[in-house]
Input
Amino acid sequence: MDFPYFAKLLGMFELEGEPVSVAECKSGNINKTFVVDTSSGKKYILQRVNESVFRNPDAVMENIVNVTEFLRKKIIERGGDPAREALTLIPAKTGGYSAISDDGGYWRVYAAIPNAVAHDKIERPGQFYNAGYAFGEFQRLLADFDATKLHETIPNFHNTPLRYEAYRAALEADEYGRAAEVKPEIEFIEEHKWLCPIITEGIATGKFPMRVTHNDTKLNNIMMDADTDEAVCVIDLDTVMPGSLLFDYGDAIRYGASNAAEDEKDLSQVYIRTELFEEFTSGFIRGIGGELTADEAKAMPVSVAVIALELGMRFLTDYLNGDKYFKVLYDSHNLDRTRTQLKLVSDVLKKRAELEAIVEGVLKEIVISR
Ligand code: GN1
Ligand code: MG
Output
C-alpha cells in the first residue's frame, strides 16, 4: 500500500483538505490503523476493518453510528464538547460511513481527537483512575440505550466456556504440531477451568445483570488529554454489545494493572499492581455512579482471572491454529501472550483476598462520601 493507494481511498471520504501523509499506527491486534495528515491541518484516523474477525462490517458500523449518536446527545446535555468526547465518523461520498478499496478492503475514517493520546501502559499516577472512571461512565451513559438495537458483532465474544471448547478443539486438531510444546499451559488451563463459567452462569441466573458493555477495555482504547491525562473519549466501539459489567472491568484490569506488557517474556515481571487495581476500581465504581450490585462487586477480583484465562485460551487457540486471528510479529508471539495471561490468573488468585478487601474499601469510601 503506497501513497497513491491511500490518496485514492481517502478521496472516497469527505475530508477537509488533501492528504499529505499517511503513517501506520501499530497498536491494535485486529484492524489496520493509519494516521492521516491533510493540507487543511486536520488529522484523520483511517482504518481497515478485519473482515475475518468482523464478518458483518456493516453491522459493526451501524452499532457505532447508533451508540455514538446516543452518547453525543448525552455529552451535549451535560455541557461537554462532543467533537472531543464522542467519536466523529467521516461520511463517504457515496453515502454511509465506509468505502471499499480496489483490493476489496472495508475502510472507515474518523476525525482525530486533537491533543489526545492513547497509552499502551500506565505512566503516571491518576491515569488509571481516569481510565476506570471513563469505562464506568461509558456503561452508565449507555444504561438507557435500547440494547435490542445492537447487532452482536462477534457472537459469544466473552462466552468463556465456549472459548474453552474452541481451545480444546484446536488442541485436538493440532494442525501445526504445536501441542507438544505447550504441556504446562494445557495443564494450567485444566487446573483452572473452574473459572470459565463464573460470569456466564451469573448472567444466566440473573446474578449479574445484562448491560451495554464495551467488551474491549484495554487502556489504549481510551484517548487521554496529552497535557492533563483527563480521559477524553472511549474509542474502538467495534465490540459494543450486551454483556456483564465484569467483562469490561476484568479486561481493563488484566491489561492495565499488569506490571508488564501482554507479550512480556520475563514472567517474573508479570503481576497485578495492587495500587493500580485500586485506582481503576475506585474510578470505575464512581464512573458507573455506584450502580452495581453486591454480587457484581464481590466478583470483581475473580473476573480479572476469568478474563485473563479467557484471553490466554484465545491466544493459545490461535497459536495452535497457526496464528490466523491476532496479528503476530514472530512465531511464538501468541505463546508468549498466552503465558502472560496465565501468569496473571495465578497472581490474581493468589492475591484474591487482598483484592476483595480493596473493592470493599472503595465501596465504603463511596458510601461515606455520599
Ligand atoms: C484485540 O485489537 P485490539 O487490541 O483492540 C481483541 C481483544 C483482546 C486484545 C488483546 C475483536 O483487541 O479481544 O483482548 O486484542 N479484539 C478482538 O490484546 O478480538
Ligand atoms: Mg483497540
